[in-house]
């Protein structure tokens, strides 16, 4: 009986082993027959911008015809993400106009993008953008690994729908306009702060999946999925949450390019304003935000509230469209305290218009100061420093002091002392808080009239500066390098670009040579490099002829809206007459600084220099002491600039 049992158990084991071997063989045969699914390359249209695709790295297929100028590109080699992906690929030379596959890799935003013409595409310059990308030919990098388990299908490529631009339900977009009827809250007594509002999460839209293999494990490598507008590519399971929003890159949120200003509103949060009038002030801000069409290619707006001390409610880069800005304005609560306007203006000058706060550099800086009645501190000195920093101050006085109240005003005529100019363009006087809404359109029109924003021009960004450098034999090679270092040290102090300060240089002996003109270089780095590479000439000293040459070859090509500054450096007496050329320079509005070294003639320096000579003529007894003059020359240039009338 025991033997029979053992025989049955052996048979069972033998059958199990046969089945196991057969199964393994069968699985091997099935594995051989199953092909791994191929990665499917999405096809996009020519107008798709890189900012719409949130992957840090991706492969796409471009169609033919993307060389068309209607597809905009910004930058060279490194492109702003507001550029067309496929047009940038053509510009870079990775593709021709017939299209094809490309690899796109996101990189950090740049402080500036330089336009150029390449491969039939003209790219444009852009001062600043938050994100960039580079383009290369498609590589064999695996972007989607097939499943390692035999018989399973590939993971789908996931696309996320771009967030809708309509407001979230229940989010207020317009503040209720206060009624002008009599209300006890309109008194000047202190009021409690209004309650805050709940913040709401944005609608991130829904997620849609498209199988990359088109439901076939044997899809052709050339198969493409059409990338539809409103969708953004998404690597499955790896998307930083903050990159889901593409709203600010949508053309409808780019803002008005005809009003590209960086704007700060200084709002009155003092106790005297009262709760009702503070809300009218917020409604005014919301109306301004709506009228301005906020966006990264147009105006940007931040708010500073002042009382005893100022505080930033939000900066320039916090809200990139009018809808979000209006929602943020509604949530501002009153600070209370005094009306220390001067302290608030100083705060804005020192802290608000910084790169970290979103200041774009190429856009005019505008500060609109709103005052209920009159300030409780002085504004003149703080405003002067703000103007000299390039800030255009507008002043809105609401319900200003009447005759019997003027005795309480700390600083008479404070609005004209604060505003950018005293010609009435920068000052608005409003008789009643209930008529404040009537100033929305006039103020917006003035803010956006960038040609009249006179305080954007400072002593550092508004001149054509021509250096006239003595290269005579008495200077010598070593001292000539010291002179060039002085020229470089002065140039470094200015904001240099095609639209800001421009630098040119002439070297002279008996003859004259244009080293570079005002339009030769447009960046500080290029200017400094050009100065460093100027070669020493050697010869005689004809200073009068050099001045005439500079007037013809440099300053004749100066822009009409630029201040013309000539800085002449010489180490000896001129062999020719300098009086007539110097008078010609003064007559043509060229402000001339004459710097003499060692053997220079003091009487000639005073004739060459603009009056008064004590502010425009300088002398050092050694070449090695030239560096000491840099701060004095800069200070005198700025003092002369800032002393002009403000009417």
From TrEMBL:
Protein's GO biological process: extracellular matrix organization; nervous system development; positive regulation of cell-substrate adhesion
UniProt source species: Phyllostomus discolor
Name under which the protein is recorded: Vitrin
Compartments where located: Secreted, Extracellular space, Extracellular matrix
Quaternary structure and interacting proteins, as annotated: Binds dermatan sulfate and chondroitin sulfate.
Function, in words: Promotes matrix assembly and cell adhesiveness. Plays a role in spinal cord formation by regulating the proliferation and differentiation of neural stem cells.
InterPro entries recorded: ECM_Assembly_Org, LCCL, LCCL_sf, VWF_A, vWFA_dom_sf
Annotated ranges, domain LCCL: 40-133
Signal peptide: 1-26
Xref: Pfam families: LCCL, VWA
UniProt GO cellular component terms: interstitial matrix
Region feature Disordered, mapped onto this chain: 140-218
Lineage: Eukaryota, Metazoa, Chordata, Craniata, Vertebrata
Biased composition, class Polar residues, residue ranges: 140-164, 171-190, 206-218
Domain VWFA: start-end pairs: 262-447, 464-633
Gene: VIT
């Amino acid at each position: 009986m025991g033997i029979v049992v053992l025989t049955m158990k052996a048979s069972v084991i033998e059958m199990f082993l046969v089945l196991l071997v057969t199964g393994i063989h069968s699985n091997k045969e099935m594995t051989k027959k199953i092909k791994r699914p191929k990665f499917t390359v999405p096809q996009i249209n020519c107008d798709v911008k890189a900012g719409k695709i949130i992957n840090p790295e991706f492969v796409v297929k471009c169609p033919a015809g993307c060389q068309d100028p209607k597809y905009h590109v910004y930058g060279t080699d490194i492109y702003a993400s507001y550029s067309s992906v496929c047009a940038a690929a053509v510009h870079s030379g990775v593709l021709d106009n017939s299209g094809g596959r490309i690899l796109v890799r996101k990189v950090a935003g740049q402080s500036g993008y330089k336009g150029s013409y390449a491969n039939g595409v003209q790219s444009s310059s852009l001062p600043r953008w938050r994100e960039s990308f580079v383009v290369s030919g498609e590589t064999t990098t695996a972007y989607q690994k097939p499943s390692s388990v035999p018989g399973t299908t590939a993971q789908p490529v996931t696309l996320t729908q771009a967030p809708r631009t309509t407001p979230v339900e229940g989010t207020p977009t317009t503040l209720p306009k206060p009624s002008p009827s009599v209300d006890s809250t309109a008194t000047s007594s202190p009021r409690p702060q209004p309650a805050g509002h709940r913040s709401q999460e944005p609608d991130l839209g829904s997620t849609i999946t498209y199988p990359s293999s088109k439901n076939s494990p044997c899809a052709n490598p050339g198969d493409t999925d059409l990338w539809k507008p409103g969708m953004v590519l998404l690597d499955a399971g790896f998307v930083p949450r903050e990159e889901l929003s593409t709203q600010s890159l949508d053309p409808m949120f780019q803002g008005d390019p005809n009003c590209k200003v960086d704007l700060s509103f200084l709002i009155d949060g003092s106790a005297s304003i009262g709760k009702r009038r503070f809300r009218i002030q917020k409604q005014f801000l919301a109306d301004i935000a709506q009228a301005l069409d906020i966006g990264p290619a147009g105006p940007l707006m931040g708010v500073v509230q002042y009382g005893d001390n100022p505080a930033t409610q939000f900066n320039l880069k916090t809200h990139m469209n009018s809808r979000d800005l209006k929602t943020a304005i509604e949530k501002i609560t009153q600070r209370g305290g005094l009306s220390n306007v001067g302290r608030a203006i100083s705060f804005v000058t020192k802290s608000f218009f910084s790169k970290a706060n979103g200041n774009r550099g190429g856009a005019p800086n505008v500060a609109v100061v709103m005052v209920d009645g009159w300030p409780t501190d002085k504004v003149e000195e703080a405003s002067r420093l703000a103007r000299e920093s390039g800030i255009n101050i507008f002043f809105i006085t609401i319900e200003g002091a009447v005759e019997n109240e003027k005795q309480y005003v700390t600083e008479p005529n404070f609005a004209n002392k604060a505003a950018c100019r005293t010609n009435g363009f920068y000052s608005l006087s409003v008789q009643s808080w209930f008529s404040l809404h009537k100033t929305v359109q006039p103020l917006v029109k003035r803010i956006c009239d960038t040609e009249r924003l006179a305080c954007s021009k400072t002593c550092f960004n508004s001149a054509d500066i021509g250096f006239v450098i003595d290269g005579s034999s008495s200077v010598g090679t070593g001292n000539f390098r010291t002179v060039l270092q002085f020229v470089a040290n002065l140039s470094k102090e200015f904001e240099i670009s095609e639209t800001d300060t421009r630098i040119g240089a002439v070297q002279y002996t008996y003859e004259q040579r244009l080293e570079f003109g005002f339009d030769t270089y447009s960046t500080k780095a290029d200017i400094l490099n050009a100065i460093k590479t100027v070669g020493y000439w050697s010869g005689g000293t004809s200073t009068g002829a050099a001045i005439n040459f500079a007037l013809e070859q440099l300053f004749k090509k100066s822009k009409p809206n630029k201040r013309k500054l000539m800085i002449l450096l010489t180490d000896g007496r001129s062999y020719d007459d300098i009086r007539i050329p110097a008078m010609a320079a003064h007559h043509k509005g060229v402000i001339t600084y004459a710097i003499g070294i060692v053997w220079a003639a003091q009487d000639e320096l005073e004739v060459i220099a603009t009056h008064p000579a004590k502010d425009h003529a300088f002398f050092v007894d050694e070449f090695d002491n030239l560096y000491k003059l840099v701060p004095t020359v800069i200070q005198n240039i700025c003092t002369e600039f800032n002393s002009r009338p403000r009417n």
